[in-house]
């Protein structure tokens, strides 16, 4: 199903692109997210992982080598939950964004407690994800919060 997104063209940019770790098990979705980030400008996907173990190993070997981690929760092996904590441990200044089909209010709250900065539902919060990334690329002091970030879990 095609997604309708509002992507604003960029007329400015940073000298150094935002380095992205993309943790997603579906090859097609990795391509879609990579293309989306490329269309926003100022992003460079420096690593991709499809399992929790691959992501953790890359993070250990490249501590501080990323600025944005985009993490799915359901992976080929393991879960994105374990990746969130590892991200926080290896690069405390990096931003962790969860992009998942399973972003229920309870899961969202748990991800935020683990150290995620934002959580977005793949099916209906893609525009909010795009806005978050665009704000980060524009060096906004505080990117927008993920939907329902402050709502209590049901």
Give the SSE order as H and E letters.
Answer: EHEHEHEHEH
Could you say what the CATH architecture is? Answer: 3-Layer(aba) Sandwich
Distance between the termini: 29 Å
> Which fold name corresponds to the CATH topology?
Rossmann fold
CATH superfamily: Response regulator
- Low-confidence region ranges: 1-14
Radius of gyration: 14 Å
Strand content: 15-25%
The total of helices stands at 5
Q: Quickly name the level 1 CATH class.
A: Alpha Beta
Structural class: alpha/beta
User: Which sheet architecture does the biggest sheet show?
Assistant: 5 strands, parallel
Give a written overview of the molecule.
With 154 residues, the chain is of the alpha/beta class. The protein has one domain (18-137): Rossmann fold (3-Layer(aba) Sandwich). The protein has helices at residues 27-40, 52-61, 80-90, 105-114, 126-137, and strands at residues 18-23, 43-49, 68-71, 95-100, 118-121. A five-stranded parallel sheet has the order 2-1-3-4-5, sandwiched between helices. α2 packs parallel to α3 (80-90). The longest helix is centred in the first third of the chain and has 14 residues, at 27-40. It starts with 17 loop residues before the first strand and ends in a 17-residue tail after the last helix. Residues 1-14 have low confidence and may be disordered.
Which structural traits does this protein have?
Rossmann fold, 37% helix, disordered N terminus, 154 residues, alpha/beta, five-stranded parallel beta sheet, globular
Short description:
37% of the residues lie in helices and 18% in strands. It is an alpha/beta fold and 154 residues long.
